[in-house]
From TrEMBL:
InterPro entries named among the record's database cross-references: Calcineurin-like_PHP (IPR004843), Metallo-depent_PP-like (IPR029052)
TM region positions: none
Protein name: Metallophosphoesterase
Origin: domain of life: Bacteria
Gene3D superfamilies the UniProt entry points to: 3.60.21.10
Boundaries of every Calcineurin-like phosphoesterase domain copy: 23-166
Residues spanning the signal sequence: none
Pfam families for the chain: Metallophos (PF00149)
Length: 602
């Protein structure tokens, strides 16, 4: 017998369960890698983990700390999140893309096994959509990684095809190829990509619309990816579109939008992976290359409105600014190519999808916790809810609870404790020792292995990512140096100084701090808030958090080329990020799309 939300027997859902009092969870950017997988390799089986006696197929800590995501411990974070959902008896679970780390057979099949177990044992239903990491190429292709952890702590290259190997020490592993849509979707069909007998309704963009005449068997014959192809407007080649609409319970429509875009570079064969380049820009490019999809969304939203259905869309990609409308100012300060600002949806693009009928949209891709709102003068409104990644700070998932036909309660659930998150720490110590023997000038900080729980571990991952990558790649040099040395008292002194005297004061502070080499806090706090929203603010000491909340009320001059102008702009951005829409626990009115924080009287 399966666990239900209102009732316990699936056969009674269509009779007893309504769209109210329904809970749905969203687990984004899992980036699952099978940490005890089978390389099927003669040259390399993995590295022996003395704790378990198993061969670990993991990436190096060095590679993790230079990436915006973890590769290894997120495996255990997924298991912890699923156990949390099981305990809470939440039955409907959405995975909005990047559910694997590059769509390799080894990882896809591991995810399928895990989800099938929770489906069969606990009755949980899963609904997936594709991200830019699954699949990487529309028709797949050979691939591999150079940074698996080797037997002595060194980097071990493992590739799916000998043609990619120039290093004699590299291993060959067919399960590390990239699966394309057809191969990847096949073992995952039961997770939304095809209809289920329990569904009230299921369709995709290439089926004729027939809600009243819906029947499982006729649709089953047309659900495969060979029936879900469209002509790429640039190359003319047929490409897959894995979008679908499902009504798992009466009144609730879940719209999965596949916004992956691939550009043909030719002149090789259509199914050659080298002929295609994937995009991470989402709807900014999908709006032009998938016009059929936008037309279908219009049809779906019209039908939902006419039939009184609650339509919730989800995709890997966001549909509104996820920086509290500060992205334009961030581009001026940092540069349009920094901080992944190219991934911010353009306002005109957001408006097109809002006009098509999207009102509440859940997204991943950015590994951040945020609530964004497009609000146009013509009353066009769209709410974009960014679901954090389980593989980065803050590690969390979201749930919505439909309290009634017009009220949605959205909560964010931190994965503070993940059983077995430290299972590979001894192997990382071996790696660190090997790196020290190489006298690397940028060896990662061994203190990350002192983390007491998964939340602390991901925050330390972010700290190292800032030190090893972000501080070098994204920041104006003098501003970065200032933020790394300025004290809280100096910030307060500068804010309380007349505007015309601030520049001279800041230059003096900068010189003094460079000599003293004191450690500042603003750089890390910026990323905690930008990535974590309310959850990030919760990790910051109260005195600093209170200061950030007051920044919008302070007089801050416009950006200019001086250090003072950059600092003013930075504080204005920080204040905007700190005081935006609630992103942790809030209520959403589905009629006017107004938002109020949980516990608020207004």
């Amino acid at each position: 017998m399966k666990a239900g939300i209102l009732v316990s027997c699936p056969s009674s859902w269509t009779l007893a369960q309504s769209v109210t009092d329904v809970k749905v969870a969203f687990l984004a950017d899992i980036h699952l890698q099978d940490v005890y997988g089978d390389f099927e390799s003669q040259e390399f089986k993995g590295v022996l983990n003395q704790k378990t006696g198993q061969m670990a197929t993991i990436r190096t800590m060095e590679s993790q700390l230079n990436s915006t995501r973890l590769f290894n411990e997120n495996y255990f974070a997924l298991l912890s999140a699923l156990e949390d959902l099981r305990r809470k008896r939440i039955q409907w679970v959405v995975l909005p893309g990047d559910f694997t780390d590059d769509g390799q057979p080894m990882n896809v099949l591991a995810l399928s096994r895990i989800l099938k177990e929770y489906n069969q044992r606990y009755g949980m239903r899963f609904f997936l959509t594709t991200g830019n990491h699954d699949p990487v190429y529309p028709y797949g292709g050979p691939d591999g990684k150079r940074d698996f952890l080797g037997e002595k702590g060194q980097n071990q290259a493992v590739f799916s095809d000998p043609s990619l190997v120039s290093d004699s020490s590299a291993a060959i592993s067919p399960p590390l190829a990239n699966w394309g849509y057809f191969e990847l979707i096949d073992p995952l069909q039961s997770f939304g990509f095809s209809q289920d007998p329990e569904d009230i309704f299921w369709t995709h963009p290439f089926l004729d619309w027939d809600y009243e005449g819906y029947s499982y068997e006729p649709i089953r014959e047309k659900a495969g990816m060979d029936h879900r192809l469209f002509a790429d407007p640039l190359s003319g080649f047929l490409l897959p579109d894995a979008s679908y609409l499902v009504e798992p319970i009466p009144g609730l429509w879940l719209l999965a939008i596949d916004a992956n875009v691939y550009t043909y570079s030719g002149p090789t064969e259509r199914m050659d992976s080298s002929a295609w380049r994937g995009s991470s820009l989402g709807f900014n490019v999908a709006v032009a290359s998938k016009e059929h999809q936008l037309n279908w969304i219009r049809k779906v939203s019209q039908e939902a409105k006419a039939r009184g259905k609650t339509l919730i869309s989800f995709s890997h990609y966001p549909l509104a600014d996820f920086h509290q409308d500060r992205s334009a100012e961030m581009a001026l300060l940092f540069g349009a190519g920094k901080l992944q600002l190219a991934r911010v949806p353009l306002p005109d693009v957001s408006k097109l999808y809002a006009e098509a009928g999207i009102r509440v949209h859940f997204a991943g891709h950015m590994h951040i916790n945020d609530t964004g709102k497009l609000a146009q003068a013509d009353s066009t409104v769209l709410i974009n809810i960014q679901v954090p990644s389980l593989a980065a700070f803050p590690p969390a998932y979201k749930t919505f609870h439909l309290l009634d036909s017009s009220t949605m309660h959205i909560q964010t659930h931190l994965i503070q404790h993940a059983d077995r998150f430290d299972e590979f720490f001894d192997l990382y110590r071996m790696e660190h020792q090997w790196l020290n023997q190489k006298a690397s000038s940028k060896t990662w900080n061994l203190k990350i292995l002192d983390a007491e729980n998964y939340l602390e571990y991901t925050q330390m991952h972010l700290q190292e990512l800032i030190r090893l990558r972000f501080s070098e790649s994204d920041w104006p040099e003098r501003l970065k140096n200032l933020l790394q040395g300025i004290s809280l008292q100096q910030v307060k002194t500068w804010l309380n100084t007349p505007v015309e005297k601030r520049e001279a004061l800041l230059d003096k502070m900068y010189d003094e701090n460079q000599k003293a080499k004191q450690k500042g806090f603003l750089l890390e706090d910026f990323y905690l808030i930008k990535n974590g929203g309310d959850l990030g603010m919760g990790q910051i000491p109260q005195e600093r958090a209170e200061l950030y909340l007051q920044l919008p009320n302070r007089r801050l001059s416009s950006l200019d080329s001086s250090l003072n102008g950059q600092f003013s702009s930075f504080l204005r951005i920080l204040g905007g990020l700190s005081t935006g829409l609630p992103s942790d626990d809030f209520f959403l009115d589905l009629q006017d799309l107004s938002i109020r924080r949980s516990g608020s009287l207004n």
